[in-house]
Amino acid sequence: MSAESTELPRRRRRGNATFWLGLILVGGIVLAGIVSFFWTPYALSDMAGGRLEAPSAAHWAGTDRLGRDLFTQLMIGARIALIVGCGAVAIGAVIGVATGILAAFATRFLDDALAAFFDILIAFPTLLIAMLVVAAREEASLGTAILALGIGLSPIVGRITRILTKQVLGQDYITAARVSGTSWGAIVYWHILPNIVPFLGVNLALQFGLAVMAEASLSYLGLGAPPPNASWGRMLQEAQGTVYTAPWGAVLPGLALFALVIGINLLADGLRDRFDPARRDG
Amino acid sequence: MMSDLLTVRGLTLATPDKVLVEGLSFSIAPGERFGLIGESGSGKSLTSLAVTGLLAPSIRPAGSITLAGKEIIGAPEKRLVRMRGDAVATVFQEPLTALDPLMPLGRQIAGPVRRRLKRKGQEAGRVAVAREVRSLLELVRLPEPERLIRSYPHEVSGGQRQRVAIAMALACQPRLLIADEPTTALDVTTQAEIVRLITSLVEELGIALLFISHDLAVVGQVAESVMVMRDGRMIETGPAEQVLTRPEDSYTRSLVAAARRFDEALEGQP
To answer: Nearest C-alpha of chain B: how many angstroms from A8?
Structure first.
């Protein structure tokens, strides 16, 4: 008991620091994304300044090679990154969780088939699958990018869901629930989903980071959200040629991407520590 | 003559390469307390799973199990779901794993309560369910029901967890309660309390009891009739008093003698 009482507060404090740091990073980017709907320093395609200006009072993040304001692009890029991340994770989670639970419940044959299917899809890089989906559609658009990344993420979510569900299905409380006459649907809703969500949630945060980075890559390749959307990935691509003369053009979107991905992961860890009752109160 | 609640006739359970239970027959009358004795691996827990229709798909059952007049073996899952809880409920060995770690205890008891009220066509609103949960907690003699309803399994003691598990089983108002080694995971003092609780509850509520244990002394306290199993076969059966004091089979005799020696060693007698 005494060992626990000295050990716990320290762990709790560390958990809190993680949570708050994540919240500040993600919160700042979410705020920038929301504000971008109502206000940006300049219009996105407004060539308001000189070419490749360094950060100044007029242009907080400098300007690009056409004289457009980079801070404006960063704000709109935040919006796009969040929309793509949330959309892709939502699509990936719906498809992945549904097929993962189906596999865990299925007959041996269907389960093996689905598990092999997940593994084959995972063997392809998410980005490659997303590129195939974009290529299959007529043209690149924000919606296509989200759908493509969601499909690309779904086998990863599916495989984890399948394993987590099987673990929960082997527990005595599932047998206990079945013995007391609980239907399978109720068992999934009341017992399986709540017990896999803490683990799945952390993983989905990881997938969110992947999706944001993959969107940047798609945009970098010209397969992401087309202009006039600004994307951190396309900012990186455009700044590529001038990285030595105007490094902020590449460094700032890179930092923004880094902050969002790290922030989401810290936040997910912190949330799990806070809301998992088995961890709470030791 | 009253017809039996549970009748098992020639039950054989086998995987493709092994026979686990062979030619088992016994019956339990309504309100009867029946003890199933055997060491681990003797097939007693499998038998109880077969009674609730929860065998793993790799195990093939043969023979006949009738519970409340309905055949279990080969019954479709849909009918089994309705029968579980209505006719039979189970208390497991390890209450920590038999309770959902992420669900408050009150809600875990509320689940079967709500299903039962709906099945019987009674009002199943939040107030009615909460009232029923509270009275179940009182029935299993748990103190501070308000606190327990909001607690998670890891926040209460082993004995309290097992009482919650018993409350969950009784929430179904079954006609047969299966208790599968319900005291094995508990310390000796708590064991005695749980055994007394189960015995008095089934008597009070007129429920039949299938009590599974390897502990002769415990079974002796609970059961009116007993059956001794070994390697999936029935060794001896009869009234508890007769089997446990004047066993006919040599295996039962060795079990009884071992238990007696253990008791004497505990009491420090020669």
So the answer is: 16
